[in-house]
Amino acid sequence: MTIAPMAPWLSVLIPVYNVRDYLAECVASVLEQAPDDGSVEVLLLDDCSTDGSSETIDQLRARWPGRLRLLQHDRNRGLSAARNTMLGAAQGEYIWFLDSDDKLLPGAIPALHQIVQAHGPDAVLCDFQVWREKPRLKHRLRGEAHRHTFDGPSHVLQYGPTGLLRGLLATGQLHAWSKITRRALWVDGVRFPEGSYFEDMATMPLALMSANSYYYIPQPWVAYRQRGGSILATMTLAKAFDQSAALLTLHQALAGSSELADAGLQFAMAHQCARNLHGAMRFVQKAEASSAELDVAAQRLRADFASASPLAAGALLRAYVQRGWWFRWLKFRRAYAHRSV
Fold first, then answer.
1. Does residue 164 share a domain with residue 88?
2. Which of 39, 107, 178, 326 is paired with 294 by a 20 to 30 Å CA distance?
3. Where are the beta strands (DSSP E) in the chain?
4. Same-domain status, 216 and 246
5. What is the spatial distance between Cα 277 and Cα 272, in angstroms, rounded to a whole number?
6. Which of residues 232, 247, 265 is at a domain's end?
7. Which residues of 11-45 are buried (b: 16+ CB within 10 A; e: fewer)?
8. Would you say residue 228 has pLDDT above 80?
9. How does the average pLDDT of the chain come out, rounded?
10. Res 82 pLDDT > 50
């Protein structure tokens, strides 16, 4: 009698592009805590690396025979396309995205498994730590050893998307790798936008809108490597536009829904739109372009805010005053007024 192989309960999806110096540590952080019984599958997608990452993948497959599934693109298509391809190939009931220069912290997968077995939520949210090669005192004082990703109840199963979206938008931590989701949430065409930046912010809320239940564990499960090539460290005008427009699709998806009638969600979403505006406008202030071009850019950023935010600029400013958030009030007022006539 032939026994069918165990269907994986978890798929860890790791896109690979020019990360030779980091990939082995990333993969080891997963496989060293995942059982060797087929219950956790690890997918790597080589997006046409040019730095020797492909050779590193071969070495890892030899080190852990049969434990890595390798996918490849025939041309470099970017992070969103890599994730989308792996989503289509994944077999696990749950999906965990992991960037190839980051790593899972010890005990993360067993802790996740306990929550899944006990509660079976549609989404599990975890915290993270910022991973620097040479952390300094100022980094510790900023709380980088433990960054919270959710503002809401923890250690208890919660229901409905309203509180989930409100708690995520309140912190602004919308990255894919701190949310483990049922694969069933990635239906109806929910995918990462190819060719765009700030893809996590544009996509994760859409996937989580379909979650009927969720569980927040306030423990760092991911070490997020801080290095110089990040999006925010290499901003361009195109990236600034993607940042300011990142929540447009969410607003469109929520239009007319009962969720968007929630005052707390309205404020949290408007606050995140204000953060996006401030970050994008800060780049416009420094960009090398003609005055006319920068005026047009600033107008576009304000238009994106107006289209994505459930609260108009004046209403958000009043909400900041009511909460006593004077620093936020000042930052948003300055950003919104920049280059306006």
1. yes
2. 326
3. 10-16, 40-46, 68-72, 94-97, 103-104, 123-131, 157-159, 179-182, 213-225
4. no
5. 9
6. 232
7. bbbbbbbbbbebbbebbebbbebbeeeebbbbbbb
8. no
9. 92
10. yes
DSSP label of 142:
T
Q: Is residue 170 part of a domain?
A: yes
How crowded is residue 268: how many other Cβ atoms within 10 Å of its Cβ? Answer: 21
What pairing do the DSSP bridges indicate for beta strands 10-16 and 40-46? Answer: parallel
* Residue in the structure block whose two tokens are 């960054």: 147
The beta-strand segments (E) located in 17-168 are 40-46, 68-72, 94-97, 103-104, 123-131, 157-159
Listed residue (161, 318, 91) closest to 328, CA to CA: 318
| pLDDT band at residue 39 using 50, 70 and 90 as cut-offs | very high
Total domains, the chain: 2
Enter the DSSP assignment of 256: T
The whole domain housing 120 covers: 10-232
Classify residue 1: in a domain, yes or no.
no
For residue 133, with 0-12 CB atoms within 10 Å meaning exposed, 13-18 middle and 19 or more buried, which class applies?
exposed
Q: Is residue 151 a contact partner of residue 167, using CB atoms and an 8 Å limit?
A: yes
Q: pLDDT by residue (tens digit) across 117-143?
A: 999 999 999 999 997 776 665 656 566
> 222 and 84, same structural domain?
yes
228 & 295 share domain: no
In this structure, the answer to whether residues 197 and 178 fall within a common structural domain is yes
55 in the same domain as 39: yes
pTM of the shown model: 0.92
Residues 255 and 129 grouped into a single domain: no
pLDDT at 295: 86
Q: What is the pLDDT of residues 187-208, one digit of tens each?
A: 878 999 999 999 999 999 999 9
